[in-house]
Specification:
By secondary structure, the protein is of the alpha+beta class. It has helices spanning 3-19, 45-59, 125-131; strands at residues 29-35, 64-73, 76-86, 100-112, 115-123. The chain has one domain (3-131): Roll (Nuclear Transport Factor 2, Chain: A), CATH 3.10.450.50.
Length: 139
């Protein structure tokens, strides 16, 4: 799979999260994919990624990711996404606030046989919590 196809597949993953389209992830991820940065309690494999997605969309029903940079080399893709949403459910221990947030996330995906076999992701959860007023203010 050429690098441009990998980059397009990464963008389709973010589009699927935006749309809450769980079914389209089946064509993009291997069922036994490895998520190297799972959230606490996340089950393994694609089922775990879908679990994360359901939790994220429960916290932010209008969650939308805008893809920034996408780089690809060989079987790897690295991407930067700005996530935006309005908190309507609990998020990282913070009660719903109705406030909007915008925060960055960075991903690396390794492709094998045309699907994501490994996923690394990190997001600025601290920044999101600060925007929600869920962090103590230093005196």
């Amino acid at each position: 799979m050429p690098t441009e196809e990998h980059k397009a597949a990464y963008r389709r993953i973010i589009e699927a999260v935006n749309a809450g389209n769980f079914g389209s992830l089946d064509a993009l991820f291997a069922a036994d994919m490895v998520d190297h940065n799972p959230v606490p309690g996340q089950v393994p494999g694609l089922a775990g990624f879908k679990q994360w997605m359901a939790t994220a969309r429960h916290s932010f029903p209008d969650l939308r990711g805008t893809v920034g940079h996408v780089l690809a080399e060989g079987d790897l893709v690295a991407g930067r996404v700005t996530w935006r949403g309005t908190q309507a459910g609990p998020f990282a221990g913070a009660a719903p606030t109705g406030q909007s947030v915008a925060f960055e996330a960075y991903h690396i995906a390794r492709f094998e046989g045309g699907k994501v076999a490994e996923w690394w992701g990190t997001a600025d959860i601290f920044g999101a919590l600060a925007q929600l007023g869920a962090l103590p203010v230093p005196s």
